[in-house]
Amino acid sequence: MKVNGNPDWTETEAGQKLQERLSSEKTLEALDHLLQRIDTLEKGVERLSTLLESGPGLVSIAVDTVDEGYRSAAERGIDIEQRLGAALALAEKLTAPEMMDKLNSLLKLADEAPGIASMVADMADEGYRTAAARGIDIDQRLGATLELVEKLTAPGMIEQLKGLLNLLGQAPGIMAMGVDILDEGYRQTAGNGIDLAALSKKGMTVAKRTADLVDSDEFDALLRSDLFNPKTLDVLSVVSGALTQCRMDPPHRAGIFKLLGAMRDPEIQKSLGFLLSFARNFGKLCNEVIEKDLQNNKKQ
Q: What pTM does this model have?
């Protein structure tokens, strides 16, 4: 078929190829997608047109909102212009080159924060295991610490701590007063003829000699001896009582005949028996000490 003497375009090779492409599924899907985009664009244009039509009213509402916010801030004592000036100054400082370098470093640190947190957690776990290996209960210690913090932050404890801090604030004055009192006491003592420096020196000498004595072998031997035996102390108490009684009732002179007559007194007989027993045991122990010394001398 010819149109105006020219063959129909559908019969040409190009027309047939165009028909094939138009009838293919892919082309139809592309055309459908394009039509959908055109519909979306048309809806967007309509919304933009509506927005432009309502623009003056929206601007008026925004201006009214800003004015109302400005008045409310002024009523609360907030100077918006001052705040804006401060914000601009802060923005200027934040955008300075050296501040940008610091912010970049801070951002890098923030990027590395998860790794750092993981490393810290690993260190905490390792410390927990190490403490547990040494027999330290971290949970128990933390519980005790929290309990201590709770007690320290109690109202009554806060008041006591405040009083203690006030006392510490007055400590220099109290120390100065104490030093003055000591100086005054030192001067009064010196005025009474007492040399505190000499007494202190002698006291140090006595303390040193006492320490040397306590650290000596002789003192150890004294502690191991029977001197502190309860029975020995009972005998010494009896002797002390008898000496005190004699001091209170001084004895009279006695001759040989009075001594012979006193031999019939049971108490004197007991005393003589005690003296004889003491002499016997004393001689026995003296022989043991002498023999021990001889053996030590032979070994040396």
A: 0.27
b/e code 269-289 from CB counts within 10 Å (16+ = b): eeeeeeeeeeeeeeeeeeeee
Q: Tokens 């505190």 appear where? A: 196
Q: What are 85's two structure tokens?
A: 């000036």
* CA 30 vs CA 14, 33, 34, 71, 195: distances in Å: 21, 5, 6, 57, 118
DSSP 158-202: HHHHHHHHHHHHTHHHHHHHHHHHHHHHHHHHHHTT--HHHHHHH
- Rounded Cα distance between 85 and 96, Å, is 17
Residue whose structure tokens are 């009064």 = 188
Percentage above 90 pLDDT, the chain? 0
Residue appearing with tokens 């007494």: 199
Phi, psi of 134 (to 5 degrees): -85, 5
Nearest-angstrom CA–CA distance, 14 and 8: 11
What is the reported pLDDT for 154?
A: 78
The CA–CA distances, whole Å, from 267 to 90, 209, 262, 264, 272 equal 111, 44, 9, 9, 9
CA distance 182 to 191: 14
Residue 132 contacts by C-beta under 8 Å, 6 or more apart in sequence? 138
pLDDT, residue 276, reads 87
Pairwise CA distance, residues 122 & 120, whole Å:
5
